[in-house]
């Protein structure tokens, strides 16, 4: 199939995902322009599988001599998916993060490297899952792998009752881990991925220790101590889980207990230690687990990027070109929708807006500016809805951030605030349910449960925990908590690490007279208070901006995944369900604008430069004028094109025809060149042969004369 869809006319084969990948690749090579493939659709519609196939076909098209690199690129998706995907109520392998994979090619089109960006990992899944859902895949894979390798005790994992973070209401978790072959196989596959991509054994060992450390952290229980002075104090009655977690994370268990059950407050230059209640201690424990997992995931992605960056000696990344592949979590509407679903759905809303802008708005603006009479196509513009979410200072996310700053705020005051300020047809509040609000998304109505919205948005990690984790003897763990976070909430690349650590040293140490390991100096207990606390909403906003800025650079190709039914059945086609998706994604309007409009709009100069071979002699350099464009188009015998003021307007099928003509002409040129070169070569050979014969005769006659004499 890969061979079938390699540089042929779109119409000569049935539609296929490889054809889309091929179109992006050919555009990149022909026009030397970055490309971007945007895959969208509901959760469970097949976006992740499509992304796999695109990467597979692009590695086939960009065959580098470097087989190892091709192997590595193909291993990236399975690895990040083990850490970033999970089983949800509607999809067994649901992406719980946004992924933008850039494949880098040399100017001649050979693949030379890759870079992956991750956005908005759903960290809350680590500590709690909805009924019928599971934690991230990697926890089950590693449990099964260690079980079969008889290494559970080494990583302090129980073999009877599963850890709290992966336990569920069915009570079959351990049974599945022990009996299911697939988990064990996946664990081997993940080890293989790590090895192929180039992670060292030490790094992988550290990753496993952190993951099992997270599972043990979840088992730490707290109990209240009541003494005559205070009642809101907590302790860890059973130290086993605490000791296990501390051992795996290579930190002291007393220090860990202290960080979980108390916190430092700095007032007027004095440090006061306050105790945590049982609930607060449990929140701190869960915040620590989420932070560990989120930063570990970021580190893995950064490490992959370092191992897959283009080789500076072979090729210069600046001259290369990219094909970006966007695969984000799809639109979701569950029985209960929380903060995570809201973020996911706003992101999908933004992608839909980008699609509309590109397909409808920009095209129609160009017709007007070029003075072309093309029928306008009506489409559903979701801009007002996006403004309702993203506007400052009165958009939904801004209101959420504002409310998160008030210590007294509750989820109820938040919903009241939404109701008072978001007065538009897209927002409503159902009667009789206090903590609920509804949004009319482009893909349908969704009811959100505002319970824990503020808590999830604040996403606080107490400084006390950070300080303890920095004392770890595990180099990787140290690094995770000493690198700063970027505006999108990810771990910064390692270069920033030392500067960030040394910035907080006392002046006499940073001057460098005494050589100190920067990690040993622990920072001030509340070092993060002077930084403006970042919220999940602000990370989300920056992530969207970052993603859009990457997408806008390239020429976009859209892939729409349509979900055939809601029962995960093979070969079952629900007409209503499919029609609904075709309606709200704007595909019916897209068909209309493709039939009536002109999807290729090329500047005169660019057009002449690209296609002058078709009507002019090879050595001529014709000007990029209207007349020359006309000559080329008439020579090509195309129909239904239009010339604007500065651009040639072509239908979607014209470009292919022109490229095929061009290929034919260049093919003829190559044949001519081959014959001429052959003739010149033969002539040169005859001359050389004659010269050699006369030379031989001269030498022979001279020698014979000499002998005779």
Notes on the protein architecture:
It is found in: Cell projection; Cytoplasm, Cytoskeleton. Residues 1-663 form the Myosin motor domain. Its EC number is 2.7.11.1. One of its GO terms (biological process) is regulation of actin filament length. It is an enzyme of class 2 (transferase). With 709 residues, the chain is an alpha+beta fold. The chain has a domain at 600-708: 2-Layer Sandwich (Alpha-Beta Plaits), CATH 3.30.70.1590. The protein is 50% helix and 12% strand. It is built from 26 helices and 17 strands. The strands form six sheets. It has a five-stranded mixed sheet, with helices on both faces. A three-stranded antiparallel sheet has the order 11-12-13, with helices on one face. Helix 2 runs antiparallel to helix 3 (67-84). The radius of gyration is 32 Å and the shape is globular. 36% of the residues are buried. Residues 496-531 have low confidence and may be disordered.
